[in-house]
Description:
binds coenzyme A, Aminopeptidase, 234 residues, 7 strands, 2 domains, alpha+beta
Amino acid sequence: MNINDFIVQVALPExxxxxxxxxxxxxxxxxxRGTGIAKRSPEYVAGKISDGKSVIAFHKDGTWAGFxxxxxxxHGQFVxxxxxIVSPKFRKAGLAxxxxxxxxxxxxxxxxxxxxxxxxTGLAVMKINSDLGYEPVTYSELTQDEEFWKxxxxxxxxxxxxxxxxxNCMCTAMLYDPVEQKxxxxxxxxxxxxxxxxxxxxxxxxxxxxxLKAKPQNKGGLKSLLLMFTVLFK
Length: 234
Ligand SMILES: CC(C)(COP(=O)(O)OP(=O)(O)OC[C@H]1O[C@@H](n2cnc3c(N)ncnc32)[C@H](O)[C@@H]1OP(=O)(O)O)[C@@H](O)C(=O)NCCC(=O)NCCS
């Protein structure tokens, strides 16, 4: 199985029939990982498909293989490429990479001035985002749109996010800024991530332990840790 076995395209209205399967897979995968997820309904996903704001992938035999969609926040100043999912039987073939590339291009085309961001706990997504030019940032650099943060309410870690006054949580925040064009830094970060995946995993374990332990007033420690992480990879 390789990437040439798949078709990755902007989803068309007739693909709305896959909305239910997509949502089921999102929920199943979140359960299997035991991690948090912002829940989506089939109607919401179908809406994204109708609006031309999503990318869908199929195996060449016609089986649904993957999905991702665009969300906009702060009146279009921020864009998130959310809900990335690859069917378990098609993983590790480079499909998430191809889907993210396509949705990134679509986002740049539709919202050329927007900052593109993501929150993730996964190394795979961090690698892909870095390749696309995203950099790790603090939560304060993300959209402050209440509607975005409401999406976290259905995540198992929501209590932690609230306890940390929305300044930190289990996810790592990453951002692509079209104005700053810090692509060289992001490229370097991507290379380091590839060279030292174990180091990153260790960092994530330390960060998550600290996030759980830290009292709300002890924000300095977490901030230094994030800075250390950013410096470590630069
Ligand atoms: C995360 C997910 C989308 C990855 O899909 P995929 O098609 O297997 O990913 P790719 O094959 O494109 O791999 C991308 C990179 O991540 C790496 N990778 C893939 N799965 C990984 C994993 N579980 N752990 C660590 N690295 C992983 C790949 O080796 C590849 O790295 P490389 O570019 O250095 O070769 C898929 O596992 C999934 O749908 N998981 C459940 C939903 C989810 O976690 N979504 C993300 C929410 S933020």
